[in-house]
Amino acid sequence: HLREMKHFEAAVGKEVExxxxxxxxxxxxxxxxxxxxTNEAVTILDDNENEITIALSNISSAKILYxxxx
Length: 70
Prior knowledge:
5 strands
């Protein structure tokens, strides 16, 4: 699981599943490729190429999704 800033920074470019404390756009579950990490937020690119910025304080859990078929 990704917990600390260094974990998120090491996961840039990887597909990650985020569970949130507070819903954003009526959802508490987001999946996407991490494209940017700051001291306050993580920005992901979802399957539709939309950039979504999630506050680090709103992330209850995050884990890298592995594609075992590749």
